[in-house]
């Protein structure tokens, strides 16, 4: 019987947000794969948060960065799209031009989803960019002490142990729903990739949308989690890699993570500039037995890229492993506990 993956491009769906997502997508862009990026719409910080406050649209920052990562236009277009006005420009201070364009087109087209599809054509995006929902969502968290907060920036700034998160529409009247192309892409995927990115504020907000988490669990694709290299202040301090996976599984009430990519190269002591990278806390500790107890296949190697006194994923190495997984026999033998 002919292997369908040998006759067509593998379909890879990457789910997340924040700064980690574009690193993976940028390295996937030039590979012979069909890429779909599902991007969180629950951001409320920076330029995105200000635009969301004054214009009732989905925060555009994560979508802007993903679009640049997948765009195949001259660099001057990308640079212009990413340009952020200086703080001395009182009216536009801190705003990225791309954020303003996405917000404007969202108003013109009556929603973020159609706006992003149209802009993707203009930017010659190699792949698909799907906002996880077509409306701005609000992230909520319950902490271990029973208290609750709403808003991504408020939740992170609380520096408290998070028990669970969920999302609501901004008006709190309706249950958030994913647009159908998001569900279709997940169900038709050959591989689903989560991360890298903030566990509670970039990855889980997508999975908490009605239909998205269910589709990820039901999809025949293997689910791969790219574990963070560093823990994050206010979210995952003192977490092991197994703790990250445990939180994901608990939120979806099932051990749905099949494979975990774990960095094993040590971050040099005194290398991290914790003032510049104030969200980084400490290297994620390893608990390989804890991962295996949750039914995970563990791929551990050097995924580390040291630059600018920060610790990040080496996108080339990560993508190399993702593509290796697609070619392995076990890849199509999805295992659930």
From TrEMBL:
Q: Name one Pfam family in it.
A: CofD
**Main localization of the protein?**
cytoplasm
Would the keyword Cytoplasm be found if you checked this record's keyword annotation?
A: yes
Query: Which InterPro entries would you find in this protein's record?
Result: CofD (IPR002882), CofD-like_dom_sf (IPR038136), Gluconeogen_factor (IPR010119)
- The answer to whether keyword Cytoplasm applies is yes
Where does it live in the cell? Cytoplasm
Taxonomy, superkingdom: Bacteria
Q: Which UniProt keywords apply?
A: Cytoplasm
| Similarity section | Belongs to the gluconeogenesis factor family.
Q: Which HAMAP family match?
A: Gluconeogen_factor (MF_00973)
Q: What does this protein do?
A: Required for morphogenesis under gluconeogenic growth conditions.
Stated name of the protein: Putative gluconeogenesis factor
Q: Which organism is it from?
A: Levilactobacillus fuyuanensis
Q: What is the lineage of its organism?
A: Bacteria, Bacillati, Bacillota, Bacilli, Lactobacillales
The protein's gene is named: yvcK
